[in-house]
Amino acid sequence: MKEITFTRLRADLSQVLDEIRDGETFIVTQRGKESVMLGQDNSKSLISTTNVLDSEILKAMVRNAVSAINADKVTPSIVSKEVEALGRIIKLQGMLDKTTIDTLQKQAESVKPSNSANQLSIKDAVDEVRKRHAKTIRDLEGK
């Protein structure tokens, strides 16, 4: 078992994954957060626990997407794609039936179109940022 920092894990991800495939186990530490164990354990109970956790995480993601839809916090096209992708993942893992996924998709499609008057084009947004931060940009360009 090896201990590795999150920063080092990111830098050496390919090598760490190769070692995990070869049976090594890693404890990943990150400042201010709980350590996490990465590695392989072929015990059935651990694998089934992981599948249950994956199931709960995916279901929570779908619930969050639906909540965002209902709260008018996102645009229909983004949510539609997100719900569709989540639905495909969940369907592949056999966690939700097709009817539930179809219902979620219909909810995503029925969201009110966003108010385009409040949206800026990318060019306008960049111009707005440049106006607001003109002094900082000038100072940085002068260095």
From TrEMBL:
Pfam family, one: PhdYeFM_antitox
Signal sequence extent: none
UniProt xrefs under InterPro entries: Antitoxin_Phd/YefM, YefM-like_sf
Listed SUPFAM superfamilies: YefM-like (SSF143120)
Family assignment from sequence similarity: Belongs to the phD/YefM antitoxin family.
Role played: Antitoxin component of a type II toxin-antitoxin (TA) system.
Protein name, entry field: Antitoxin
Natural source organism: Serratia quinivorans
Phylogenetic placement of the source organism: Bacteria, Pseudomonadati, Pseudomonadota, Gammaproteobacteria, Enterobacterales
